[in-house]
Amino acid sequence: VNEATTLRRHQECAHRDAYLKWAQNNKFVSMLPKDAKRRREAAAADRQPSIDGHLKLRAPNERIVPYTDALFREAAVEWLTETDQPIDALEHPAFKNMVDIAARATNGVQLPNRRQTRRAIIDLFKQNLTNLRKRLLVCVFHAFD
Q: What are the tens digits of pLDDT across the range 63-96?
């Protein structure tokens, strides 16, 4: 017999008494199917059902500092110096657009991580390359007309 469960069922039917005597003498827990089932049922009866698996820890509410122009100016200067940005980066239209979008957020802003940013840059590059190819193909076809 090559299946462990089949062997255990055979042990239980044909050799139960001898197996239980051997298990007791060797301080071994009986692995016979009915004994294992009885242990599982006893353990389940001792345990009270709970909803722990469904509960999630909530992050403590952070104190949100109210917006002021001075606080924003301070954060912008700190960002410029710590990331070694050029001073005119704050005047760039793309930066202003990003700040305007973030200002409309009601529950804070979630910034993309390094992997997400890298993927977005690669996708944007591929899209620009595809658009350039389309424009160049149109120019080539018009040149032969």
A: 777 888 899 899 999 999 999 999 999 999 999 9
How far, in Å, CA of 95 to CA of 78, rounded?
Answer: 15
How far are the Cα atoms of 2, 103, 110 from residue 107, in angstroms, in the given order?
A: 60, 10, 9
CA angle 29, 30, 34 (to 5 degrees): 140
For residue 137, CA distances in Å to 42, 129, 132 come to 75, 12, 9
Max mean pLDDT among 33-42, 51-60, 96-105, 123-132 falls in 123-132
Instruction: Give backbone dihedrals phi and psi of 68, rounded to 5 degrees, phi first.
Output: -140, 155
What's residue 77's pLDDT? 92
User: What is the distance between the alpha carbons of residues 116 and 122, in angstroms, rounded to a whole number?
Assistant: 10
Residue the block writes with tokens 């255990």: 8
Kindly list the distances between the CA atom of residue 144 and the CA atoms of 82, 121, 130, 141, in Å, as whole numbers in the listed order. 54, 35, 22, 6
